[in-house]
Amino acid sequence: MPKPVRISLDAMGGDHGPSVVIPGAALALERHPDIRFLMFGNESVVMPLLNAHPRLKEAVELRHTDMAIAMDEKPSQAIRMGRGKSSMWRAVQAVRDGEADAAVSAGNTGALMATAKVCLKTMAHIERPAIAAMWPTMRGESIVLDVGATIGADAGHLVDMAIMGAAMARIVFDLERPTVGLLNVGTEEIKGIEAVKEASRILKEAKLPHLDYRGFVEGDDIGKGTVDVVVTEGFAGNIALKTAEGTAKQIGQYLRSAMSRTLMAKIGYLFAKQAFNALRDKMDPRKVNGGVFLGLEGVVVKSHGGTDDLGFASAIDVAYDMAHFELMNTIRSMLEHDPLDQTV
Length: 344
Known about the structure:
By secondary structure, the chain is an alpha/beta fold. The chain contains 14 helices and eleven strands. An eleven-stranded mixed β-sheet has the order 3-2-1-4-11-10-5-6-9-7-8, sandwiched between helices. The longest helix is centred in the last third of the chain and has 26 residues. The mean pLDDT is 89. Pfam families: FA_synthesis.
């Protein structure tokens, strides 16, 4: 019998808390019957919902917590007030203590990152963690990082992110040498800020065995899927992510308005309904929900706070893959070839 994958859940996190976490976990269990959940939350709220999912209940160990971190909580307050007590902290702590292989929370991003950094610590030679997100593209999917963990980055941080992103891509896309690009304002070598140009030089000269560095990529290359991994610092990455999400909603609204404007448009929609459904499915953000915190001594996945049960299940899927295919060991193996260790 294969060893079960143990996922700890912050049942109280997100805009909707257990009302999304519980059915989301039930969906994930259908996809991955070998999951076992360690769930942290208010027992009086969580247990009635668990009772409605008897199969899930058998796969869950529920541990009561009185405290939940609010979505508008400052990271410093989350650490000070919730340390050792909140559902978020205890879900991450379970990874640190070896009780879980990965943690998932839909809670406050800043609070979750601060909690994870304090509780798990960063990996050796990694100064700052990053959030890696799956991104739908014309070729399928790519990984983009950092999408908001930290603002600004020097060349060393960008190189580390390239290595960690490629490690994740090897697992997610089953590729021996994922292609990697640095997001820049142009593809010419003379363009961009010094940190980006220096990181590019290091990656080119290093010729790392487990990633294929393709140089600079521009904003439109993200959607094209030009490379498997796009690397940028958190300020630009978060703006790119929010812009893409907003554009997807804008296009959806345009289509709905256009298809209901006239009788002929409504008739045309009926003929093209299958194609529109395929488009909606492709652009559904719930299918790619789940940002992975890379650079920590443990796997933590951040679900979008406002997602539904399908979206939360997708975040659990990501955590399952990262744990099942041993992301941490892959990153450690690839960091052995870190060119920064040879340039200091």
